[in-house]
Amino acid sequence: MSMIQIRRSLVASAMLATVAAFAPAHAGNTSFQPAGVQILDPSGVCASWTLGGTAALPTLTCIAAVPPVAGSPVCSITANTVNPLNISASGPVALSATCTNTDALTTWDWTASPVAPAGFVATTGPGGTPQVQALTVGVTTTFGVIATNATGPSANKTVKVTVGAPPPPPPPPPTGGAIDCKAQGFARTITLDLKWVAPQQTLDTAATGFADGDIVVARFTTPPTLLNSGSGTYMNVVEFVGSATTHTMSLGTVPCDFSSTSVMKLVAPQIHPSLTVSAKNSTALKPSTTYYLNVTNTNFYPSSPDPEKTVFPGTPTCNTPGVDCSIAVTLKPN
Fold it and tell me: Distance between CA 284 and CA 250 in Å, rounded?
């Protein structure tokens, strides 16, 4: 801040009569022309002037200009210090927007969708960081904020406040240890545990690969709340090494089972077999239930793929020496 004192002179009385009409210039040259007196600010230091002093000793005070902040603001936003926020019922929410590259002249524009709660303020500031709003949020709302300085606006940053019980976490993989299918005639059982999250892929990475006489049992447990009996849930088997091989696949509540009379779904030998759950047929799923996707390198249909005529032990399909028939099992809940 600089101080210019203008003392009495031959033009003092004329200056006092006109000093109230002084006007600042902001673009590098502040000029005043009171009755034969000219005051220049060629450096642009002064953003404005204030008149003070006394009649005997009047003064003009330079209000220094604030240089613009380098760069637009870079912001983040939280609700009750987190992003996103889940609350069980209507309650208090503290929104806080924090940005870099802000100053006393920064403005803050807020949005709320679909409906702004009572007390919501669409514009705050001008002022520095952080900027806050204290609200009561009764319905699920997404809030956004954009901070603008002399350089320009920030990107829009949002936080979603969900009102109501948050969705339950996905169930953990079912426990119970390894599954043994020797009693059903399989030499080795490869057990895979799949989580009910979308999408999920588990690889059979056993060192000896997935060979003839082996079975892969991929088990998963449905959550307590299951929309439309799991309709649209997708399961798929594909080789991740080696050549394409036909596999037989079944889905049911019993591991190691390929009996056409007991499984929910039996897929005849196919390359990359898959099935999609439908609430309108036998593949409808139940909540909080463990299911088993059984896969084998065996053709139980020696003549034609007829689910009513499965023949055990069947014909091997991965019987080429040196071929690795390991598979990836995909579970994609709807």
Answer: 14
- Same domain assignment for residues 119 and 15: no
Across-strand partners of 39? 32
Question: What is the 8-class DSSP label of residue 288?
Answer: T
By three-state DSSP, how is residue 182 classified?
A: helix
First to last CA, the chain: 66
214 and 154 together in one domain:
no
Token pair 């003549």 is at which residue? 303
CB within 8 Å of 314: residues ≥ 6 apart: 248, 298, 299, 300, 301, 302
Reduced to 3 states, what is the DSSP secondary structure of residue 14?
Answer: helix
- Confidence check: pLDDT of 204 > 70: no
pTM, rounded to two decimals: 0.47
| Residue 171 located in a structural domain | no
Give the Cα separation of 32 and 41 in Å (integer). 9
C-alpha to C-alpha distance for 326 and 83, rounded to whole angstroms: 41
Measure the CA–CA gap between 238 and 219, rounded to whole angstroms. Answer: 17
Domain limits at 265?
A: 182-332
Greatest Cα pair distance in the chain? 122
Q: Is the pLDDT of residue 305 over 50?
A: yes
Cα 302-306-311 angle, rounded to 5 deg: 45
